[in-house]
Amino acid sequence: MRTDAAIVWERGQDWSVEPIELDSPRRGEVRVRMEATGLCQSDDHLTTGSLPSALPIIGGHEGAGVVEDVGEGVTRVAPGDHVVFSSVPSCGLCSSCASGHQNQCDRLGVMGSGRQLADQTSRHHAREQDLALMCLLGTFARHSVLSEAQCIPVDKDIPLDRACLVSCAVITGWGSVVHASGIRPGDDVVVVGAGGVGVNAIQAARFAGGRRIIAMDPLPAKQELALHFGATHVADGVDNAYELVKTETRGGLAQRVIVTMDVARGDVLQPILRMTSKRGRIVLCSLAAAGPQPLTLNLFDLTMREKQFVGSLAGSANPNDEIPRLLDLYRDGLLDLDSQISRTYTLDDINQGCIDLREGNNLRGVVLCQR
Fold first, then answer.
1. Quick one: pLDDT at residue 241?
2. pLDDT confidence of 52, banded at 50, 70, 90?
3. I need a surface site. Which of 12, 38, 199, 272 has the fewest CB within 10 A?
């Protein structure tokens, strides 16, 4: 079939919205009519090259839609089902998947190729070339073909423009607190960055019983949003955050520090380590540029005070379990998705959406793919 998609042909270029040819789904695959997709910092990393991938590529990884057709052997979903996508592919068979760590599936290694999970070929074509898919999804499109393993059925009463956010930013921020940080009721929590991931870390910290939740962001508008989502204090930089944490905790510092800034940098980790308490844990869920980076840490402080650094991908969660759980919390009024959406865009306006993302104009922008 013929449909439209937003493609990056070369690094540093804008998205090109143009017609593509879409093959029918093969065994274990489904065709989905995309309804909504979030604009995420990772999409911007794709255009700059910070996130390695094959080119040309259809962007987008944080989406929701309606199943239109299924290939042979598909049992998980049927035409008409509403689905949210797991932004990390999974096979369901490797030791990571079998032990409940679907976010660390052995098949993650194929994600950079952008080809289909089952056979590493392409179903998407334009200008007589095969197209890769971001996270094997390609949600910046009106339709896509993808593995049923990345489709998570959701109840039809959940608005898909809200549900799409749970695919990446929500599960990442929420899970970094409830799964990766080891939070206990009464802990003091610092969230570095109050963007799309950070506000969900704040909500999770509040839900899990955080006592003082201190959000750090340089933008006054993001500080206001942090307070709306449950932060008790805000700061505009690392130094001010340290002084605030030190004062409020009477020198005890923060047991949990969640790093959600747009791009992780080695130069901020030592100041973050400084504000972490004895036996405290720092969770890094920000994406950094691929490859090694210079890093200076006080290793004496790290060892003597038994502080911990951990990384967290997709909230260290199992999306098959976590995404329905998060949407249940939304339905029950315990997770605020509505206030996260600052503006919606059509697919044709995707470049303006990316500009607004980079300039910090939105908390979350959502593309309504069928408009």
1. 95
2. confident
3. 12
As a whole number of angstroms, the distance between CA 71 and CA 324 comes to 24
Give the strand pairing for 151-154 and 82-85.
antiparallel
Note the pLDDT tens digit of each residue in 98-152: 888 888 888 777 777 888 888 999 999 999 999 999 999 999 999 999 999 999 9
Burial environment of residue 182 by CB neighbours within 10 A (0 to 12, 13 to 18, 19 or more): middle
* CA 142 to each of CA 18, 68, 134: distance values in angstroms, whole numbers, following the listed order: 11, 12, 15
8 Å CB contact between 213 and 185 = no
Q: Report residue 221: phi and psi, to 5°.
A: -65, -40
Which residues is 311 bridged to in the sheet? 284
Which pLDDT does position 110 carry in this prediction? 79
Q: Which helix (H) or strand (E) holds 222?
A: helix 220-228
- What does the alpha-carbon distance between residue 350 and residue 345 come to, in Å, rounded to a whole number? 7
Dist. CA 279–CA 344, nearest whole Å = 43
pTM: 0.94
Quick one: pLDDT at residue 20?
98
- Complete domains list, the chain, with CATH: 2-167+337-368 (3.90.180.10), 173-313 (3.40.50.720)
- Numbers of helices and strands, H then E, in the chain: 11, 19
